[in-house]
Amino acid sequence: SSGINAEYGDKRRQVLLNQGAVERSRAALTRTEQIAVETETLGNEITGELGNQREKITRTRDLLEQTDSTLEKSRRTLLNMGRRAITNKIALVVIIVLEVCILAGVLYWKFAT
Questions:
Q1: CA dihedral 51, 52, 54, 57 (to 10 degrees)
Q2: DSSP string spanning 22-89?
Q3: DSSP character for 113?
Q4: In whole angstroms, what is the distance from residue 46 CA to residue 54 CA?
Q5: Confidence band (pLDDT; 50, 70, 90) for 52?
Q6: Dihedral sign (CA 21, 24, 29, 32)
Q7: CA torsion angle 78 82 87 92 (round to 10)
Q8: pLDDT by residue (tens digit) across 53-78?
C-alpha cells in the first residue's frame, strides 16, 4: 500500500509538473502569437509608409524632370537671346562705322572741292 501510494504520488507529481510545463508553454505560445500580431501590424504600417514615401519620391522625380526640361528650354532661349543681342550690336557698330565714313566722305567732298 505504501509502495502504491508512493508510485501514485510520483505519478501525481509528474502530472502536476507536466501540467505546469503545458501551462507555461501555452502562456509562451500566447505571448508569441501577440508578438506576431504586433509585428504583422507594424510591418503593414511600415509597408504603407514606404508606399507613401515611394509615391512622394516618384512625384518629386517627375517634378525634377519637368523642371530640368524647363530649365533646358530657358537656357536655349537665353543663348538665342544672347546671340541676337551680339548680332544686333555688330550690326549697330557696322551702321555707325558706315555713317561715320559717309559723314567723313561728305565733309571731305564739301571742303575739298
A1: 180
A2: HHHHHHHHHHHHHHHHHHHHHHHHHHHHHHHHHHHHHHHHHHHHHHHHHHHHHHHHHHHHHHHHHHHH
A3: -
A4: 12
A5: very high
A6: negative
A7: 120
A8: 999 999 999 999 999 999 999 999 99
Q: What is the pLDDT of residue 76?
A: 97
Amino acid at 91: A
Total residues belonging to the chain: 113
Amino acid at 107: L
Q: How far is CA 74 from CA 60, 65, 67, 68, 85, in A?
A: 21, 14, 10, 10, 16
